[in-house]
Amino acid sequence: GNQWGYGKDDGPSAWNKNYPIADGDRQSPIDILPHQARHDPNLGPIVLNYDRCTSINIANNGHSVVVEFEDSDDRSVIQGGPLDNPYRLKQFHFHWGGKGCHGSEHTVEGNSYASELHLVHWNAVKFKTFGDAASTPDGLAVLGIFLETGDEHRWLHMITDALYTVKFKGSVTDFKGFNPKCLLPSSLHYWTYLGSLTTPPLHESVIWIVVKEPMIVSEKQLGKFRTLVFTGEEEDERTRMENNFRPPQLLKGRTVRSSN
Ligand SMILES: CN[C@@H]1CN(c2cccc(OC)c2)S(=O)(=O)c2sc(S(N)(=O)=O)cc21
Ligand SMILES: [Zn+2]
Q1: Measured between alpha carbons, how far is residue 234 from residues 58, 149, 171, 201, 240 in Å?
Q2: Any residues with Cβ below 6 Å from ligand 1, and which?
Q3: What is the pLDDT of residues 11-41, one digit of tens each?
């Protein structure tokens, strides 16, 4: 089937075999050049209404660790900024590197961060299902937050303490009452551009909102993500889950805008 991964034979350089859109005109991630981003005074602030958000579970999907949310109504939405409608929170997940290596997807002037958090939202005003939104231009809005190593993050332990329960691909455990607002940095100034999913099916359906200020986490907290494995419990070889990031793709004439 369409098995893909981050290894030598099934990694990002091989994805265009099964997903030709990989060579498309609005692929993600990208390298962000702040001085070439167009400051747009019409870009208002990002508004998050996560107060009634309902997390459901935490899972290892063989590519990352994902926390899923109840999205049957507008209980947790993002709006404002470049968005014309409210977008519903569906899931969040992370991308990270190996020990001592960086693993963010977006880079800033060629510099990558240790890791990157993606909060995936969909336009339930224009689309009936998440799947429809995820495969149509601008059906998704993904909020990207960089992770930088430093002091321990006071709330990230709620995620890292649960990682041992989803070590293997296909594992899912209850994960209720978690509000990702506690992960956000103090400032939500951002860059925004039109792009794609950074994993297969690589749909060119994403309005990217990349927050400028990173969240700070400790090396110890980040190391716990590397206790996960890409492989299932039944498989004999254990492949540590790390370096699950796609490198930057060509801008192909796109404009990156900057909030103030
Ligand atoms: C495995 N990776 C996720 C695939 N997804 C998915 C799931 C179901 C259907 C579908 O298309 C119809 C797409 S997703 O939309 O939840 C996203 S967003 C995203 S990222 N790194 O660009 O933020 C990765 C994935
Ligand atoms: Zn992602």
Answers
A1: 20, 34, 12, 26, 15
A2: 63, 91, 118, 120, 131, 134-135, 142, 197-199, 201, 203
A3: 999 999 999 999 999 999 999 999 999 999 9
Rounded to 10 degrees, the C-alpha dihedral 165/146/83/159 comes to: 20
Model ipTM value: 0.96
- Ligand 1 centroid from CA 197, angstroms: 6
171 contact partners, CB below 8 Å, separation of at least 6? 59, 60, 165, 233
Please give the share of the chain, as a percent, with pLDDT higher than 70: 100
